[in-house]
Structures are given as structure tokens and as C-alpha cells.
Fold each of these.
Amino acid sequence: MIRFVARAVTDVRAIWHDMPNTDEPRVYFANHASHGDIVLIWATLPKRVREAARPVAGSDYWSLSPLRRFLGQHVFDVLSIDRAAAWIATGPLKLMAEALDRGESLVLFPEGTRNTGEAALLPFKCGLFYLAQSRPHIQLVPVWIDNAGRAMPKGRWFPVPILCTVSYGEALRVEVGEDKNAFMHRASAAVQALRPRHRAAP
Amino acid sequence: MNDADLLQTKQLLLAGTLTVLIVASLAGALLKLRFARGRTHTVIDNLNSRIKAWWVMVLLLSVALLSGPAITVVLFAFVSFVALREYTTLCATRPGDHAVLAAMFYGVLPIQYGLVWGGWNGLFMVFIPVGAFLLLPILACASADRTRFLERIATAQWGLMVCVFCVSHLPALLTLDIAGFEGRNVLLIAWLVMVVQGSDVLQYIWGKLLGRHKVAPELSPSKTLEGLLGGVASATLLGAALYWITPFTPGQSALMALVVCTLGYCGGLVMSAIKRDRGVKDWGSVIEGHGGMLDRLDSMIFAGPIFFYLVRHWWAS
């Protein structure tokens, strides 16, 4: 139902640079500008892949009110993590790694929050790196979601009609011996590279 | 003229259009086989995509032609929605525009078509130019975002004028009372669409066959003088030849066709200038790979309202 509305309003289209042809769990990491982001990802992923894909989100936000708890648990099925916890610690990293081991895919927004500024992308948090390091076989798919923040900006609860696209790039992995900064830089560049060239200035 | 005659006229029009389309599709397929089998060929592939887009357009218009006014109005409301969405996507909106955009899509657009459907002619002509014109900036103040305020509000108003107000003049033709032409108003829409779209097609063909001199290389590199003259002249003849479905005499019909084709041509030029400024070639991709709704609609947008007011002034009572 939500996907249907998203399609009708944004006419979302997927651009695949690398078709998902396996049932292996994957980590999709995307830019984040709107609550609509995850809906657009679901609307563009093939059914089989979609059903196994869960968004990772901050528990501080999604447990704030009963409505958010309900949406988070039953509608978006978020894997909620404590954004304040230390990454190396057992908490968030362990939860995500366990989900991958169970065969679930994860949707990560490494910017850590919705981007409302002028910059295309906020600096990535390093959870992605530690997750990739702890499960080196997992494919990390960069994703650029275009225009979701314009269709449904932060603080609004319904979308306006603006055409959106979701671009899926070629999967990355952590190279042997690659250090954190180099990997984070590469991951961030992979997402930015998917951004369409012709865009209206904000 | 009675209902049976009307139905016969519609069937004749559809049969004629379908014949042209089938011939065009066959020609396109033959060209592809003969010159570019299994390869990409910019001109031939572009021609074939255009033919596909015309199929979709003709099918939609046949629905309008054969069904009642309600379906026609809903169809054009949908066209407006898609066009306005393409327009908005290319504009530089800010988060503070959310309320204005919501009002445009979910308020102004349905109300405008509601007025058309209800036949409130006086209201439908002032609702957007006066009502929305004053309401939107007031609403925009609520967001307290003053960055580029005038530019944003002007852009929003222009989008409503072009994508909703102008387009709604086509179904509004149904509401005119023309003596001796009762119940046949939908044929005016058919005539206008056939002549203006025919002019686009004929300009394209003349331009591809004889085009040498570019008219406006900075705005629309594909428009040539030969295409313009040949296209408008042959579409004027087409308009005259179709006089029997309108309340016009052959001479009036030719003159009308000349006016709407010239306007349609200018419309294409204006919309193209906006696209180039935004750095894109097409408005969208509604029909997979064949450009957006606005790419096919640009000429109708400029021809529609003027045609409506000319008919209203001289023929309607």
C-alpha cells in the first residue's frame, strides 16, 4: 500500500549498474534525506530481495513515541540500534552481523541522519567499515536515492509529486589491509558517483 | 447532425489516424530492417520511439473521443498531473516549498478540473491566474523561508499556468455552446490535437528531409527553417482538409490551423529554452525512453488556450 502510493506519487525508477542475481544477504548503503528513502528502495528492489531487506535505524528516534514504535516495528521492520553506543562494542555491530548471518539483507544510511543541508552527502559514520570488516564476504551495494528529500523533506509526513530515481551501483568489499579512512572515502565516492549529473541546484 | 452521424465521424477519424499510424510503424520497421538491422541508428531509432509515443497518445485520445466528458476531463487532469510533476522535478524547489507544492498538486489541480467538468466557465478562467496567483505566495509565507522567494513563487505560478491552466482549456472546449454543433464539441479537441500534433510530426519530417538552416540553435538545435515552413504549411492544409468535423468553413479552418500551428511551434521553442537552461534534453521519461509528457505536449500548451478563446469569441453563443 505504501509502496503503491510512493510509485503513484514519485513514479520511482530503478537504475541498476549491477543486477542482484544472488540470494546472498547484502548490505545496501545509501544517502539519506527522507523517511521516503526506505520506501523507494523497497519499491525498486525485486520482490525476493526486498522481503529480506531491513533498514537499520537509530533506536533513540524510533522509540520516541508509540506511533514511531509502531511504524518502526510493524511497518518498516527496522533493525534498531543505539546510535550513541561505541561501534566496536558488542551492541550495534553484533546485531547487524547477526542479521546478516540469518540471511537478512540490511539497508544502511551511513550519514547517520537525514541530510537537510546543501552538501550532497554528509561524512559517513564508520559503522559500515566495521561491519564490512567483520563480515568480509558480504557485498556492499552503494545506492543513490535522488529527489526523495524534495518529495518528502524532513518534518513532513506526506509526499508531493516529484520524480525520484534509485541508482544501485557495483558492489564493493573491504580490500585486504585497507584502512578505515581509505575505505570510507571509497564508499562515499561510490555513492556520490551515482548521483545524476543534471540536477537543479537546491 | 444526429448521433449516428457523430459516431460515424468519430469512427472515420479513428480509422484514418490508425491507418496513418500503421503505415508509419511499418515504414519505421522497414527502415530499421533495411538500414540498421540489429544496430543502433540515432535517426531511425528516434523515429521509431516517436511512433511508439504517438500510438500511446492516439490510444488515450480515442478513449476520450469515444467516452463521455467525465472521462475526458479525468484524462486531461492526469496529463496535467504528469506534466506538472515533470516541471516541478526540474525546478529548484526547497523544503520550504512543501506546502505550496502540496496545494498545487492536491488542491489547485483537482479544483481547476472540477470547474471545467462542472462547466463553470467564468470561474475556471480566473481561478489560477487570480486565485492561485494570490493564494500561493500567502501560503509560501507560512514556511518562513525567504531565500529566492520571488523566484520560487514565480516558478510555481508559471508551472500551474502552463501545466494546469493551459492544458485544461482542451477539455473546456466541451463546455462551449456552439449553435448547430451541439453534442459534437469533442471533435474540436480531436481537430486541435490532430492539427497541432500533425504539425509537430510534419515539421519533424520536413526538417529531416530538407532541413538546412537552423532557426534557433541555442534554444532547440533540431528546429530548422525548412521544417518550420514545410510543417506549418502542410499542417494548415491538413486543418483545412478536416474542416468538415468543425463548425468552421474550409477557409476559416485553414486560418485557425495556421494560428494554432504557429503558436504550437513557438510553444516548443519556449519549453525547449527552459529545458536547455536546466541542462536536460527531455522533460522526463513517461513513455519509456521517449521523453516526457511535456515533450509531447509543449505545442498543445500554447495552442490550446488561444484556440479556446478564438472559438469562444467567434463561434460560441
Note: Chain A has one domain: 26-156+181-192.
Amino acid sequence: MASLLTGILQVALTTWSSVLWPTYVHMLVLGWLTQLIFGVAFWMFPKRSSEGSRGSQRLGWASYWLLNAGLLLRIFGEPARAIGAPTGWLLVVAALLQLAGGWAFVINTWPRVRER
Amino acid sequence: MQGLSVWCVRAALLYLGLGFTLGAIMLAAPALRLPLTVLRLRPVHAEILLVGWVVQLAFGVAYWILPRLRGPLARGNERLAWVALLLLNLGVLAAGLGQAFAAPSWVPVAGRAAESAAALAFARHAWSRARVSSATRRD
């Protein structure tokens, strides 16, 4: 919902259009689509063992929190940078959080993707 | 999971990690004073994440989870699904790298054409499997 509302603002406020475009795209593609995939994959991919393990719960939660923390920082940081606010290091932290969240998911999911 | 699904999903996971890495580099580039030429990676970042990650994951999961057919070819025309996997990956590389590194214009065009052909091949493969199950049919 938040991404779609941002999408309305992105087309309605023409002077802000290019500023809000990356925020809108990343809220939709990362916050909605990728995160939905993460959740569904964690739920339905083949379990790791006969005891029904879904891999590391800690790593699963880490990917969730890192991804969302990074996304939240960039939602504020990217438009702020575009209007000249000094948010460079905020965006470096956002980049590192999202990067860590993505790779945490890859590492946690990889062993569950195997032939039976 | 079957072999083709494993290949698709693992390739998709690698594209996810790679796409996130390129995105992080571009996001951090101004503060780290990286050359702004890294922003040329945007098309390859988008291609990798939208097609290499999302579409390829959908191929892998669909091949694994769609209803199976009766008979020896339970998962339909397997060769067609492998062709789709191959074309999709060639397409992502050609379209992404071709745009990022200013290759001759036919390279990204060929990449997008390969992606489209992959989609057609996969749709043809999945068509017969995407049907109403007799157990749940109500009409």
C-alpha cells in the first residue's frame, strides 16, 4: 500500500517525479515482491532434514530485519539526498543492510534447494 | 525438487545476491566517492533482479509445483523447459551486460529476444500442466 501511495505522489507531484521514482520502485519491488518471495520460500521450500528444519531461524529473521531496516533508511535517505541533504552515509548504511539481508536469505535458502 | 527446478532456483539465488551487490554499490557510490560510471550498472542491476531473479525463480517453482501429467512425461516436455532456462540466462547476460557496457545495439536486442523466446518456450511447456484438477473441478 505504501508503495502504491508513493506511486500516486510520484506521478502527481511532477517536480518530485524523478526524486520519488527510485523510492517507489524499491518499495514495490523490494518491500513487496522480494519480501513476499522470501516469506513464501521460507515457508514452502523443501525442508532441510527429516525433522522438518527450515534452516537457521536466526538467519531467516536477520534477512527480514536487515532488508526492512535498509529499505526504511533509503526511503528517507534517497529523496533527502536528491534535495541536497547530507544523507550520504545513511545511504551507505542502507546499502550494507540490504546487501547483508539479501545474502542472508541466499545463504539460508541454498541448502534447501536440492534434488530429492 | 527436480533437477531443472534446482538449477533454476539456484541460478535465481545467485542473481539475487549479485543484483543486491550491484544495487548496494550504486546506492553507496556518491558517499564513497566511487566513479559515477558505476551508475552505468543500473540496466544490468534491473535485468538481473527482474528477469534473472524473479522470472527465473517463477520458472523453477512452477516446474516443481504445477500439477503433473499422467504417463511417463509427468512434467511435460522437459527439453522445452531446459531450452527456456538456457535462453533466459543467455538473454539476461546479453541484455544486461550489453546495455551496461555499450555493446553493439544488436547485443541487448538479441538478449531481449532470447528472454522472450524463453518465456514462450516455458509457457508452451507449462500450458498443458496449468489446468483445473479433476479433484477440484466444480463445473
Note: Chain A is about 75% helix and 0% strand.
